Amino acid sequence: MNVYFRELSFSTRKRRELVDITNQVEKTVCESGVRNGMCLVYAPHATIAIIVNEHEVGLMSDIMAKIERDFSSSIGWLHDRIDDNADAHIASAFIGSSRIFPIINGKLIRGIWQNIFVLELDGPRSNRRIIVEIMGE
Question: In terms of C-beta distances under 8 Å and separation of at least 24 residues, what long-range contacts does 93-98 make, across chains too?
Fold first, then answer.
C-alpha cells in the first residue's frame, strides 16, 4: 500500500467563507500515483469544516445563511467569555473537519455536482491548512 501526503495552505478574507479546494485535491490525487484507494481531506483546525456540495453562487449563499441561522454568534455561548468564537467551534463540531473519497483508476470519485469546500468559520485567517492523505495501490 502506498501513502501520500500533501498540505494545502491558504488564507481567508471573511469571518465565514467557502473556499473551493476541489482542483487542488484532484491534482494531489494525480500526483500520488495511487490508482485505487481512498483520499482523506482533513482540516487540523477547530473552527473549520469540510463540506461537499455544488459550486453555485445561490446555493453557496444559502449554505452560509443556514450556518448563520443554526450557529448564531449572538446566542451567548459560554465559550465566548474566553475567545468570542464559540459559534465557529460548535459549527465545526457538528459539520465535521474531514471527508473521505474513493479513488478508482487514478481518479477521485465525486458526484458531478460535488465540489470540495473548506468552510471557514472564524476568519479572516492568514494561515489555514488542509491535509490531504491518499492511501492505496
Answer: 95/49, 95/50, 95/51, 95/119, 96/49, 96/50, 97/42, 97/43, 97/44, 97/45, 97/48, 97/49, 97/50, 98/40, 98/41, 98/42, 98/43, 98/50
HEC secondary structure over 44-58: CCCCEEEEEECCCHH
Show the cell assigned to 97: 473537519
Show the domain range for 61: 2-136
Task: Give the model's pLDDT for residue 106.
Answer: 98
Tally of domains within the chain:
1
Q: What is the mean pLDDT of each run of 10 residues along the chain (137 residues)?
A: 97 98 98 98 98 98 97 91 95 98 98 98 98 98
The CATH number covering residue 121 comes to 2.60.120.460
